[in-house]
Amino acid sequence: MRSLIRTSVLAASLAAAGLAQATSVQVDFEIPRPDAERYAKPYVAIWAENGRESEHLLIWHLQGEKDKWLSDLRRWWRKIGRYDHHVDGLTGATKGAGHYSETFDVNDNWDKFTLYLEAARENGGRSLVKSKIDLSKGQSEYRIPAEDELGDILITIK
């Protein structure tokens, strides 16, 4: 009887530990180099939304006192940026053209959410793409075709 109870407690503990693991979302994306004389590195924001809740994942912008161009990331700015004073903990400097891969842990309480990527250049173009993500499907991939400021995007759920 004691052995059965110990086995049941161990099984329940392992199941709970499995549920507590964070879900990783890997985002592979390209920043294309436009045909322009004056090239400005884009600002990039990645975030997740679930109804009225949102979660910062990444923001690349000019590092400095007050960055007046952050509001060019229009959707991100209206939804999150103008309200959140803790952006600095998630930021990095702008990056030039190339391929990038970022991995994030997302809120395990969200079975379904929308992942947003937004890129904007100073005095330039802007792209906003999104993909509905369903974590209940387990490991999966989502593809988003290229736009002006963002190349092809691959989202991998692990």
What would the keywords be for this entry?
single chain, 158 residues, alpha+beta, Immunoglobulin-like, five-stranded mixed β-sheet, four-stranded antiparallel β-sheet, 2 helices, 9 strands, 41% strand, globular, disordered N terminus, signal, DUF2271, DUF2271 domain-containing protein
Explain this structure.
The protein has 158 residues and is α+β, with helices and mostly antiparallel strands. The chain has one domain: Immunoglobulin-like, CATH 2.60.40. It is built from two helices and nine strands, in the order αβββαββββββ. It has helices at residues 2-20, 74-81; strands spanning 23-31, 43-50, 53-60, 91-92, 98-106, 112-120, 126-134, 140-144, 153-157. The strands form two sheets. The chain has a five-stranded mixed beta sheet with strand order 4-3-2-6-7, with helices on one face. It has a four-stranded antiparallel beta sheet with strand order 5-1-9-8, with no helix packed on it. β8 and β9 (153-157) form a beta hairpin. The protein starts with a helix and ends with a strand. The relative contact order is 0.25. Mean pLDDT is 81; it is low at 1-20. Keywords: Signal. InterPro entries: DUF2271. It comes from Marinomonas aquimarina. Residues 1-22 form the signal peptide. This is DUF2271 domain-containing protein.
